Amino acid sequence: MARVPLYKATETEMIRRITDGEWAVGLRLPNEFGLAEEFGVSQGTMRRALITLEGLGLLARKPGRGTIVCAPTATKGDTAHDMPKPLLRDATGSMVILDVYRARSATRGADDEELALFATTRLATLERIFHRNGQRAARDLVTLPEALLPVIDEDADPDLAALLQDAGIVCDHIDEDITAAVTTMSASVALSCDRYTALLVLTRTARDAKGKPIARQRLQLIADGIRYGA
User: Fold this and answer.
1) Which of 14, 58, 69, 149 is a Cys-bridge partner for 27, taking CB atoms 3.0 to 4.6 Å apart?
2) Cα four-point dihedral sign 191, 192, 194, 195
3) What is the mean pLDDT of each run of 10 residues along the chain (230 residues)?
4) Which residues pair with residue 181 across a beta bridge?
5) Are the C-beta atoms of 178 and 72 separated by less than 8 Å?
6) For residue 214, is it left (φ>0), alpha (ψ between -120 and 50) or beta?
7) Nearest to 11 by CA among 53, 70, 54
8) For the whole prediction, is pTM greater than 0.85?
C-alpha cells in the first residue's frame, strides 16, 4: 500500500478536526511552529497544509490575531440572465480555468437524496473530468429531472447557469455551498492523484422562481493552491 504523504495526512487530520467540530469556528490556532510540533511534521509541511485549508475557506489568517478557524458560507447568485460564475482562484489570484477532458451523459433512477431534492424518480446526468494546465484537476456531476431535459449534451458549458440557459431552461437563482473533503479511492483514480488528496467541493443548486430545485452540479476540485472567493 502506498504511503500517504505527510502533508496530505496533515491536511486530512486538520479537515477532520474542523468538520467534526473538534476545532470550533472562531478558534485561534497555535502558530505555525506550534502546530508543526503538535502534528510531528516540519514547518514546511505545516505551512503547505495551512495554505490548502486557507484556500478551502476553513482557515483565515488575520493580522494581529493569527490563524482562525472559520466556516465557508453559502452564497446566492443573481437572476439567470446575469449569474456570476464560481469564484475559483489560484495562488496568484487569477481565475481558475477548467477544460473538459472527458464527458459522459446518461439517464438513471434517482437515489434517496436526489428523490428528496427533485421529487422525481428519473434523472438526466452528466459526468465530466476537467483538465487544468494540462493535468486532471476536477470532476463534476450534473443532475436534473429527465422531464426537464431528457439528455444533457456532452459538450454542454462547464458553468451550470450557462448549461441551463443553452438548454432553454429558466433558472431564477443558484445557491452555492462550499465544503472540504479528501479523495476516495474512486476519486483518486478518476483524478490521477494520491489517495487522501484535499478537495474543494462546490455544490451548485439551481432553482426556479418558486425556489424549487431544477438542477444540481457537484464539482470536486483538487484544492492545492486553489481558493474560493473574490
Assistant:
1) 69
2) positive
3) 68 85 89 92 87 81 78 46 61 81 96 96 96 92 96 90 88 89 92 91 92 96 81
4) 199
5) yes
6) alpha
7) 53
8) no
Check residue 64 and give its pLDDT: 67
Residue pair 167/145 in contact (Cβ under 8 Å)? The answer is no
HEC profile of the chain: CCCCCHHHHHHHHHHHHHHCCCCCCCCECCCHHHHHHHHCCCHHHHHHHHHHHHHCCCEEEECCCEEEECCCCCEECCCHHHCCCCCEECCCCCECCCEEEEEEEEEEECCHHHHHHHCCCEEEEEEEEEEECCEEEEEEEEEEECCCCCCCCCCCCCCHHHHHHHCCCCCCEEEEEEEEEECCHHHHHHHCCCCCCEEEEEEEEEECCCCCEEEEEEEEEECCCCEECC
Sole residue written with cell 496568484: 92
- The closest alpha carbon to 60, from 21, 26, 98, 13, belongs to 26
Angstrom distances, CA of residue 81 to CA of 1, 29, 144, 161, 174: 50, 43, 20, 9, 12
